[in-house]
Amino acid sequence: MSARVPPRRSPSCSPLGPRAVALACALGVASVAGASRAEDAQTDAWDGDYGKRAKVRSDFFLGGGLGVLAGQASGYPNEIGKIDVPEFEASTGAGFGSSMSLWLGGALTDWFVFAFGATTGGISGGGYAAGGAAFVLRVEAFPFIARSGALRELGFQSSFGIGTLTIEKGGDTAAEGGGMSYVSAGAFHESWRPGTFALGPSVDWVHLWSLTATEHVAQVGLRVAYTTGP
Q: What is the value of pTM for the model shown?
């Protein structure tokens, strides 16, 4: 009698075969899904609108403003023996006046403007008249540009620079600020937009200071801007 030889199992009938195939399929699906998520993440990443065509403002920027001031200025003669001596202090107390500004720069995107400029103004009070000027670096931002309606026209500004301030009484110099630090911050709204011009109200806080003088003023005014694009 011949011995029976057990039948050989086909590799496809191995109990590990279906599991291995299922595992390979799962790994393949996971790899494709991971690659898709990575590609989506790269697509969704914000690049600051680089290369995106401007819809509101772009290229050359020219701006200016007129304002009404309310605040206080005080200081001492620019002489060592008179600085911080109360009897030589000159102060406007609560004073009022006006200002004028001009800026020149570029609208890099719809939401960001970078410019250099100059500002001048003065206030009077308590028998004193304080006048000053400054050269500034101005940055404007429109954080709600993606919104619709009036909110997209709301902007904020920060300005930094160097200036000077002189306080006079009866035509004579009572105090001098010398070279002074200048900082300003505020908000504005481009309420009217005829073409590439924009006009609207503005509100700012301005501060100048040095060892011999200081000035704090609030400013309410009209801002005008022009850009060559879009």
A: 0.76
